């Protein structure tokens, strides 16, 4: 068996070793709230069994990086970069009143964040109001923008925040009349309008794809961080990594012995997804400049519990599912 251990590593200068540890730290998507099955699954998930509970992925996504458990030196480097959010919040300036927003499904302070590397994501949509309690103070997108500035500056939210997926799908390929630009937005959307001006660009998640794969093989792909400890990824729809993760998810489901709830792997081109996002934004906000700030994205979630597989025999997913990734 080939031993690829780099034995001289302990003899490297301390500064170089620490820089190597820093390069191994994950770039994560920090979640403001827990995802809620069919509500983020889209129209294709409505009334059907969702392929994953999703919460376990959020829990693993909020744990400290693997480097905190490698050695004293890697742990020291990791704690210099990030910490528990309850600790980090005490070091940040207090947010304005309209950024004090927290829904009933919000993730509490016991999760890890890295301000230099993490982006921030909001799962909450207006359909959540039907299922769970939501606050009557603050504003979700204002809070999201505030959190993004406290972290790396990148933020994402669900397409369904702007449009109800319980309604018939829009004919996204049709042009929208420019006359909308002369029509004021509704009063209840004014807060969205103001909040969306707080950042120069937003990622809007059009689709959520679950990758059911054990941690060892997921780590070997390198698609969920170098150590497999970045199980949530929000990628630009045009990113080559998005295509690789799509193929991995399809391979894992195709090679399973049996699947409890099949995912819809129908794909749209990145250009079509961008057009869809910008059309929805324009119809909601009547402002073309704001709609052009939004880019379509896809969320990929690594679930190592194999909860979508009704039979979890070890040979259920062959090595070929990841060997060609």
Q: Can you tell me the residue ranges where pLDDT is under 50 for at least 5 consecutive residues?
A: 312-325
Estimate what percentage of residues fall within beta strands. 5-15%
Number of domains: 1
User: What is the succession of H and E elements?
Assistant: HEHHHEHEEHHEHEHEHHHEH
Main sheet record: 6 strands, mixed
Physical arrangement of strands within the biggest beta sheet: 1-4-5-6-8-7
Helical content (DSSP H or I, runs of 4+) = 25-40%
Number of helices: 13
Oligomeric form:
single chain
What global shape is seen? globular
Mean pLDDT: 82
Write the layout of secondary structure elements.
Elements: H1 14-23, E1 29-31, H2 37-41, H3 55-61, H4 72-81, E2 83-84, H5 85-90, E3 112-113, E4 119-122, H6 128-131, H7 140-150, E5 155-158, H8 190-196, E6 202-212, H9 215-221, E7 232-236, H10 240-254, H11 270-285, H12 288-291, E8 294-303, H13 320-323
Parallel strand pairs: 1-4, 4-5, 5-6, 6-8
Antiparallel strand pairs: 2-3, 7-8
């Amino acid at each position: 068996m080939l031993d690829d251990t780099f034995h001289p590593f302990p003899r490297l200068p301390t500064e170089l070793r620490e820089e190597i540890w820093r390069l191994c730290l994950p770039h994560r998507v920090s979640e403001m709230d827990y995802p809620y099955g069919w509500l983020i699954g889209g129209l294709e998930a409505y009334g059907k069994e969702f392929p994953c509970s999703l919460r376990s992925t959020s829990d693993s996504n909020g744990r400290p990086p693997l480097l905190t458990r490698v050695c004293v030196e890697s742990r020291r480097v990791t704690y210099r970069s990030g910490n528990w959010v309850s600790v980090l919040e005490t070091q940040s300036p207090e947010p304005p009143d309209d950024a004090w927003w927290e829904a009933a499904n919000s993730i509490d302070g016991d999760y890890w964040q890295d301000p230099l590397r993490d982006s921030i994501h909001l799962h909450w949509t207006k359909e959540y109001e039907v299922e769970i309690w939501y606050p009557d103070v603050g504003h979700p997108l204002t809070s999201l923008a505030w959190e993004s500035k406290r972290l790396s500056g990148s933020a994402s939210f669900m397409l369904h925040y702007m449009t109800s997926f319980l309604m018939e799908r829009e004919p996204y390929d049709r042009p929208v009349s420019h006359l909308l630009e002369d029509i004021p937005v509704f009063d209840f959307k004014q807060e969205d309008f103001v909040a969306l001006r707080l950042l120069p660009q937003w990622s809007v998640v059009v689709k959520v794809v679950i990758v059911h794969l054990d941690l060892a093989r997921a780590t070997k792909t390198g698609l969920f961080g170098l150590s497999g400890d970045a199980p949530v990824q929000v990628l630009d729809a045009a990113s080559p990594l998005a295509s690789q993760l799509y193929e991995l998810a399809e391979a894992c489901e195709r090679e399973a012995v049996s699947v409890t709830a099949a995912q819809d792997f129908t794909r749209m081109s990145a250009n079509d997804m961008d057009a869809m996002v910008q059309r929805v934004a324009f119809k909601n906000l009547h402002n073309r400049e704001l709609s052009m700030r939004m880019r379509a994205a896809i969320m990929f979630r690594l679930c190592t519990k194999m909860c979508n597989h009704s039979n979890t025999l070890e040979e259920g997913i062959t090595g070929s599912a990841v060997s060609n990734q």
